[in-house]
Each structure stands twice: as structure tokens, then as C-alpha cells.
Design brief:
Elements: H1 7-21, H2 25-36, H3 53-70, H4 81-101, H5 106-133, H6 139-157
């Protein structure tokens, strides 16, 4: 049986994965896109604020501070309870927003985005650990590589309509 996956479903999965790598980058990228091209489906949703320019700017500043803070030595591992819950919540929020914008069920988008965030949280954690231990990249450099992958992936994913 063939299943047709719509572009916005890929977008929800992709942004969920971005949230798993950097929790605030996915909402920042989505909010930036929505502030430039608002989605009518979000007008009556609590997530409508993602379409506001000041919200997009604030999320970008928070995402940048998260990227800087990630490279500090005493930051807890992302796979501990609080960070993984926050990343899952961010993935669920962007997934829900994408689905609502496309007049689909928020809960479906939230589940897809949240599951993608969990998978990407573990995947990016072990990739970074591999880079640090086996390739001998300093933490700051492996973090910068991860930032580039995260931002680039987020930008590519938001190109899906």
C-alpha cells in the first residue's frame, strides 16, 4: 500500500528534528518564515503569534544564545530529562503549527514533530560525542558543525510548502 506524504508533513518532521538538535532554532526559523508569509490557518490559533515579527526576532535571539551556551563546559547532556523534554515540546509545537497552518490536526503534527525531536536529540548527541572522541574535534568546533547542520537543515526544510 502506497502512502502519499504531503510536503507539510515532511516540514513538521524536519523541523521537529531541528528542534531535537537545537530546541529554539526550529521555532525561530518557522517564526521567521511565518512572519514573512503568514498562514491563514493559524489566525485563530494560540500559535498565531509565531507570525509576528517581534516574536520571530525574539526567538532568533534566544536561538543564538542557546547555540552560544551549548558550547559551555557545564551544560547538561541533551539526553537528560529536562533538556529532552524541552526539545520534544519545541518539536511538538512546530509540528502542530505546521499542521494547523495547513488546516490539518494539530495533535498529529505535534506527535510527528515531537517524535522527530526525540530521534534527532539522540542522533545529534551521539554524533557530537563521536566527533569529540573519535575525530578529536574540540567541543566548540563540533558544536559549530552541529549549528551549521541545524541552521542549514532548518532553512532547507522550510522551503517545503
Amino acid at each position: 500500500m502506497k502512502t502519499n506524504i504531503k510536503n507539510y508533513q515532511w516540514k513538521a518532521l524536519g523541523l521537529g528534528a531541528v528542534a531535537g538538535m537545537r530546541s529554539l532554532t526550529a521555532p525561530a526559523i518557522l517564526s521567521h518564515q511565518l512572519s514573512l508569509a503568514p498562514a491563514g490557518g493559524l489566525q485563530n490559533s494560540p500559535l498565531k503569534y509565531l507570525q509576528k515579527g517581534p516574536v520571530a526576532t525574539g526567538l532568533k535571539l534566544l536561538a543564538a544564545s542557546e547555540m552560544a551556551g551549548d558550547k559551555l563546559p557545564d551544560v547538561p547532556d541533551r539526553i537528560t530529562l529536562a533538556p529532552i523534554l524541552f526539545r520534544t515540546a519545541a518539536g511538538s509545537a512546530v509540528g502542530a503549527a505546521v499542521f494547523i497552518a495547513n488546516q490539518d490536526r494539530a495533535v498529529t503534527g505535534a506527535v510527528l514533530g515531537g517524535l522527530a525531536a526525540i530521534a534527532a536529540t539522540y542522533g545529534s548527541f551521539y554524533l557530537r560525542r563521536f566527533l569529540n572522541r573519535n575525530v578529536k574535534l574540540p567541543n566548540v568546533l563540533s558544536g559549530a558543525v552541529e549549528d551549521a547542520i541545524t541552521i542549514g537543515s532548518g532553512i532547507v526544510v522550510t522551503k517545503f510548502s
